[in-house]
Input
Amino acid sequence: MKLHYKLFITFGSIIAAALIFIFVYLDNSLNKNYILQLKDNIKKQTLSVKYMFSKTDLNKNSIDELVHGLGAKLGLRITIIDYRGIVLGDSDLKHNEILKLENHLQRPEIQSAVKTGEGWSQRFSTTLKKNIIYYATTYHSKSFNGFIRLSIPVEKVSVVSHNTEGILSVSLFVVFIATLLVALIAFNLISKPIRVLAARAHEMAKGDFSKKLVISKNDEVGELANSLNIMSENIVGRINEILNNNSKFEAVLLSMFDGVMVLDSNGIIQLMNKTMQDTLQIKDNPVGKKPIEVIRNVTVQDMAESVLNRKEGVITKEENLIFPYNKTMLIHATPVARDNKILGAVIVFSDITELRRLETIRKDFVANVSHELRTPISSIKGYAETLLDGAIEDNANASEFVKIIHGEAERLASLINDILDLSKIESDTFKLKFKTCTVNDLVTNSIERLDRDAKDKKISIENKTGNDEIKIEENLIIQAMINLIHNAIKYSNEGGKIIIRSEKQDKYIKIEIEDFGIGIPEKDLPRIFERFYRVDKARSKELGGTGLGLAIVKHIIQSHGGEVFVKSVEGHGSVFGFTLPVDKQPSLF
Output
C-alpha cells in the first residue's frame, strides 16, 4: 500500500475517533442541557400554576376542572395532592380513576418537597405504564394546603434527544467526509515528492543511475533527494571502479597461459578462466560446483579441502589428469584469507605435459646417442689398441683392422651428421629457402644419387610421378626422399622393385615410395618415425643405419607444413609417403 493511502487511512481513523468522541460528548451535553432547560421550564410553569390557583377559590370540584384545563394548555401532567398524600386532581385521569389511586405521600418527589419545599424524581409509572419525570412543590393558601406536582413522560425528552442526535450525526458525518476529501488531496500533494523519490530509488535498484532528482524544497524531502543524488553518483563511481578492476582482472585471467580456479569458503567454484576450460574441455558452466564434479580428480579435491581447512598453507603437486585425456599438471593451491579468516582458495593449473614429454625425449635422445656412439668408439678403440700392441706388424690382419676402424669411423661420422642435420632442422632460427620445382625432377634427382646402391642389389626403381609444381626447400626435400628411397633399397630383397608415385589432392601433393621387401610388423608402425627406433636393431646396424633417418624425414616434411605416413604388411613390403602443400608454405620451422 502506498504511503499517502496509509496516511489517509491513519488520518481518517483519527478523525473518525475524534468525531465519535465529539458526538458522544455533545450528545450527553445537549441531553443534560435539555433536561436542565426542561426542569427550569417546569419550575416556571409551576409558578404559573400556583398563580392561577391563587386567583381561584379551590374546592374539590373546581380543582379537577382547573387541573384538566391547565394540563391541556401547558402540555404537562398536573397532579394536586393534599398534605395527607391523597390525590385531589390529575390532568391525565378521570375522576373515577383518581379515586382508585393509592396514597402519594411516600413518593420520592413528595418526600423531598416535604423536606425542602420541592423535589424531583424519575421512575416508571404503574398508572400510565411509562417512565415519567416528576417535579413536586408545596402550595399553601387559605382554602388549600398540599402539593402541586407536574410531570412529563421521558419519551418526549427522548424524541427531542433523538432529533438532536440525528442532526448532530449528519453534521459530523458531513464534516468527516469533507475532511477526508481535503486530507486525500493534501496527502496526495505532500506525498508526491516522496513517490518521486521512491520511483527513482526503484530505478536505481534496477541499475539505472542516469537521471537526477530535481526537488526544490528545503525540508527533509529535499535533503533526501539531494542525498539520493549524491549516493547515485557515488554508486556509479564505485561501479565503474569495480568494472574497471574486473576488466583488468578478467584481462589478466584471459591472458594467462595457466588455468585458474577460484573457490569460496565452502569449496564451491566461483570462477574458472577460459584457459582452464579449454585445457580440460569443460563445456558446462563450472560455477556452483565442486572441483571433483568438474575435474574428476580426487587429488585436486583433497588439495582444495586441505587449503580451506588450514591443514596446509600453499600446496604444490604434480598430477596426471586422465579426464578428458592424459595431461600432466603442476597444481598450486593457495588460501585466500582476511583477518585470519579463510575466504576461499585459488588453484592454478600449469600444463607441463609438453615439458615432461620433451624431458623424456631429451633423456631418451641422450641415452640413445650415448649408446650409438659407444659401440663404434669401443670398436675403434679396441682395434687401435690391438694394432698398437703389435698387430700392426701383421700386414694381413692390420689391413683388416684398419678397414674395420675406417668403417666404424664412417658410421660414427654418419651418425654425427644425422644428429647435426636433425638439430639444424629443429632449430628456431632455421629458415627455409623456397624454390619452385617439379615433383618428377625431385624424384629423378634423388634416384640418380642412389643409382649405384640400387644396381648393387639389382633393384629397379620406377618413377611414376607427374610434373606438378611445388614450392619447397629443394635440398631438404631431396634429402628426405633419398632417406626414404635408401631405406626402401636396404630393406628390399635382391632383384626387387621400388615404385615412386605422386598425386595431387586438392591443395596437397602426395608422394609415395613403395617397396616389396620385408615389411614392418604392425606393432612397430606407430613408433617408426621416432629417433633411434629400429624394428630389427641387429639388421639395421648390419646395414649401417643410424636410427635417425626417418626422424629427419618427419621433421623436414613438417617444416614444410606437410605430414608423413606409412603403410606396411610384414613380409609383403611397405609404403612410405608424405604430403606437401602446393600453395601456402611456412617460412620458419
Q: What stands out?
A: The radius of gyration is 64 Å.
